[in-house]
Inverse folding.
């Protein structure tokens, strides 16, 4: 696949080409993609700004129709997009198709949001006056997206931005840009005017600062250190910033938990999609009364996972997405062993029918919250069990981490569930369900330093993608 950039409605493939490698088969080059230059970024910013007035005033039914058709195209091509996603990022084929379907649902949701997004009308405190509150586009939006959800995250940032009348420059990860190219093709096919959406490819270090400093708003998903750097770059220009960042998410299992439910939620939340989810469980906190029975069942569940080529129908867990991430994961495993943690299952590379980045799902026992394993985001199929005395200690351990994205609890007590819902500092809480698995119609995000700015998805998206204007009208003279 020869990837192309999209600037002002024109497809371009000039420049140094960057290859992507199939993490399930290191002998396969999936695509070749050009590296955007500073000149490309500046041109994309200029054309996006030039198109902003017309797009922001486009008839709302036309805007809705374009988003609806884009969603329809994603559904119709879900198998093709999902297959490319599996080859380039490493999710299993079922996960890749499922992610593409979710991207379609996001576009369909925001097609409706175009029509239902309200303003406000108020009586004034002054006789003969009224007040109108309107929500206007924030402007040119730069969307910088990661490799772990290469179609869903570009979809929910792009669809929301376009729905509220903004123009967009999308810069996907250089590790898995193919799905973003296909999304751009579908937006063009759906009738989006030239220049309203622009696609830049390659390494963000080349063009990132220009996008952050010259766009009106930047929405970024990625690692917390990078998010901090973007925030610092945005501050002098007072660029509006939305950051969805890292997690070190706790999953508490109480003595009264349903074992079947607890094991399933922990296993899926921790190792699903190769553990490469910012909302995945990385600290499993278990009270002592259920600890041994839970651990025994969880080890069996983890050991039974089938690791292999993403396109094999029997595969449940695909490869780690790229070499850099694999090396990071292996480093965490080595240091956890050295710190005294016990490997209960996994901790080694796996051979498959092809050369790939296959890592066995790994579970450590005898860990505590002081270990690096339980302090730093791993972003892979690795987690540790922390044994605690009781619910009070579980809550304290869960909260003893600066990252506050997602959290979960397994319990059959409504009182315990409600207490944890209130006391958790995370932006999201799950009860008897995996910590991962967000839905597109409700807010998504965490508290700083796991997030910054307005929340993503659902009607909460309007907070970031619009600006409020309050108009006072003296209608007595009109």
């Amino acid at each position: 696949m020869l990837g192309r950039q999209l600037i002002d409605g024109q497809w371009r493939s000039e420049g140094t080409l960057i290859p992507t490698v199939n993490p399930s088969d290191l002998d396969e080059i999936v695509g070749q993609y050009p590296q955007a230059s500073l000149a490309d970024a500046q041109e994309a910013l200029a054309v996006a700004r030039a198109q902003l007035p017309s797009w922001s005033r486009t008839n709302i039914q036309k805007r809705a129709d374009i988003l609806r058709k884009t969603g329809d195209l994603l559904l119709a091509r879900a198998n093709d997009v999902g297959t490319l996603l599996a080859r380039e990022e490493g999710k299993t084929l079922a996960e890749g198709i499922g992610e593409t379907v979710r991207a379609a649902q996001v576009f369909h949701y925001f097609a409706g949001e175009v029509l239902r997004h309200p303003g406000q009308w108020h009586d004034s405190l002054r006789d003969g006056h009224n007040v109108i509150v309107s929500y206007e586009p924030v402007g040119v939006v730069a969307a910088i997206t990661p490799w772990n959800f290469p179609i869903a995250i570009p979809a929910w940032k792009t669809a929301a931005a376009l729905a509220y009348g903004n123009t967009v420059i999308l810069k996907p990860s250089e590790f898995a840009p193919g799905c973003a190219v296909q999304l751009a093709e579908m937006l063009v096919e759906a009738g989006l005017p030239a220049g309203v959406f622009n696609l830049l490819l390659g390494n963000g270090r080349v063009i990132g600062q220009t996008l952050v400093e010259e766009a009106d708003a930047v929405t970024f998903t990625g690692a917390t250190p990078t998010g901090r750097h973007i925030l610092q770059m945005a501050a002098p220009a007072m660029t509006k910033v939305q950051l969805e960042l890292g997690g070190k998410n706790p999953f508490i299992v109480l003595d009264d938990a349903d074992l079947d439910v607890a094991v399933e939620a922990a296993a899926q939340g921790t190792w699903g999609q190769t553990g490469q989810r910012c909302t995945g469980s990385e600290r499993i906190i278990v009270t002592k009364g259920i600890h041994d029975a839970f651990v025994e069942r969880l080890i069996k569940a983890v050991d039974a996972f089938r690791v292999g080529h993403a396109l094999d129908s029997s595969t449940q867990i695909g490869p780690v997405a790229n070499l850099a991430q694999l090396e990071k994961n292996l480093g965490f495993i080595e240091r956890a062993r050295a710190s005294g943690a016990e490997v209960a299952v996994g901790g080694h590379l796996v051979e498959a029918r092809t050369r790939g980045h296959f890592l066995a799902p790994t579970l450590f026992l005898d860990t505590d919250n002081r270990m690096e394993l339980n302090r730093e985001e791993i972003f892979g199929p690795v987690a540790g069990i922390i044994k605690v005395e009781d619910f009070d200690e579980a809550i304290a351990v869960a909260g003893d981490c600066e990252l506050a994205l997602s959290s979960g609890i397994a319990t059959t007590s409504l009182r315990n569930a409600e207490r944890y819902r209130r006391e958790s500092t995370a932006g999201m809480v799950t009860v008897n369900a995996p910590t991962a698995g967000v839905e597109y119609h409700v807010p998504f995000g965490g508290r700083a330093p796991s997030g910054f700015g307005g929340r993503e998805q659902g009607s909460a998206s309007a907070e970031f993608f619009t600006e409020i204007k309050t108009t006072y009208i003296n209608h007595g003279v009109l």
Q: What stands out?
A: The radius of gyration is 23 Å.
